[in-house]
Amino acid sequence: MTVLGSISLWLTVLLAAWSIGVGLPGLNRGSHALLESSRRAALILPALLTLAVLSLVTGLLRRDFNIAFVANHSSRNLNPVFTAFAITAAWNGMLLLAAWVFAILFLPLASRARDGRSGATRASAAVSAVLLPVAGVLLAVDNPFTRLGITPLEGKGLDPASLDAALPLLAPLGLIACAMLGRALLDRILALPGEAGRSVDSVERWFVGSWVLLTVAMMAGLWHAYQTSGADGSWRWPSAQRFFGVIWFAASMWLSARALARTVRGKKGHSRSGATVTAAVTLLAVATIGSRLGPERDLLLKSGGATLVSSWVGTPYLVTHMGVSRFEASDRYTTAATLDLVRGERPVGLVTSERRQYFDVLGRRTGEPVIRAGIKRGLLEDLRVVFREPSASEQAAYRVRVYPLMSCLWLAGGLLVIGGLLRLLELANE
């Protein structure tokens, strides 16, 4: 499969160069034959990148550790779902996946190129100009299909912090959204002067669709960060979320400017979607401010030891350390500490925080321990417990923090997605 993947990338470079090389002279001369040759060469690019992506995913699923990418980002005891999504574990895999999605989104533009209009016929050369350097960088800098001289018995495994049900959504949705933004910009660049108004509406549709996907990806990343802790008790942010967060913010600013411009021109619309997004932004601001107001305490408790933790809304919590438990699974060793929560005379329940150390099939450690926070959720506040430090005895060190109004954050995420979908409906009806 590595040979097929490498050949696909090399053919992508050659056909993209051919598409540019014959497309530009075809535009200058008005030659239909050259333009058609450029279009057909560009039409093959999505198929070639599909072969490259399938080759890499197949290597991951087959645990072909002779491929450097597979050896660095998977292991034999890794769940098959996470194994397939390990293609996004490194920059070269993410770049390959993004190029593939962008090439797939290009296909409708290529079909428009038959009508001979100068704006549409530039599509093939423009897409080729994007994919040529991408494939070239993959081949020259860090080819994902590079083979090792000696096949290791076991791979290094995926980053244990990535083994969360929410994270497989983050990178694929973010990459699809970025490819949709690229398609939107391509639509705008290739528009003829007389099509400017229709082009802007098309760009907005692509922008809103990508913004919705980015919002879902961002909320998945937030969910993961809230439940996964650093050694100091802080939220553990996925590295990809920082990158997609910048793009999400930029897209939000563009859409806000677009809505403001429509309002200034006196155009109607954005009524339901605008109100929904405004409510979501308000809730988001409330959750952000509330998260700064909650009390925080570091606790060191023996088994059966108890203390009070202040609440933001009234009666404090009586927290009692129930002990430390240790158990093994096929791929990890887990140390868990449990607190019993009581408010006044009413039991609230148990909260358990875990420290998980993952191992490969050879018994070697995979990455640093992953700390899973225990969270007691509520409408007005959450209590987040982080098991910071185990000991040989039943004693445990915790960091406990109250997060007021965190429910507003998740409600805001849902409203943002609904607002984006409503805007897409409004654009379809205009």
Give a short synopsis of this structure.
The protein has helices at residues 2-29, 32-61, 68-73, 80-85, 91-112, 118-140, 167-190, 196-227, 239-264, 271-291, 407-429; strands at residues 228-229, 296-301, 306-309, 317-328, 332-343, 346-359, 365-372, 374-376, 381-389, 396-404.
What's the pLDDT, averaged over the residues? 83
Structural class: alpha+beta
**Beta-strand level of the residues, as a percent range?**
15-25%
Uncertain residue segments? none
Number of separate structural domains? 3
Radius of gyration: 26 Å
The order of strands across the largest sheet is 1-7-6-5-4-3
What is the H-and-E element order? HHHHHHHHEHHEEEEEEEEEH
Distance between the termini: 48 Å
The biggest sheet amounts to: 6 strands, antiparallel
**What helical percentage do the residues reach?**
55-70%
Tell me, briefly, the overall form: flat
Discrete helix count: 11
Number of strands: 10
Throw out a few tags for this protein:
flat; 3 domains; Tick-borne Encephalitis virus Glycoprotein, domain 1; 56% helix; six-stranded antiparallel β-sheet; four-stranded antiparallel β-sheet; alpha+beta; 430 residues
Q: Any overview of this molecule?
A:
The structure is a single chain. The chain is an alpha+beta fold. Helix content is 56%, strand content 18%. It folds into three domains: 156 residues; 109 residues; 113 residues, Sandwich (Tick-borne Encephalitis virus Glycoprotein, domain 1). The protein starts with a helix and ends with a helix. The chain has eleven helices and ten strands. The strands form two sheets. It has a six-stranded antiparallel sheet with strand order 1-7-6-5-4-3. Helix 5 runs antiparallel to helix 6 and helix 7 crosses helix 9.
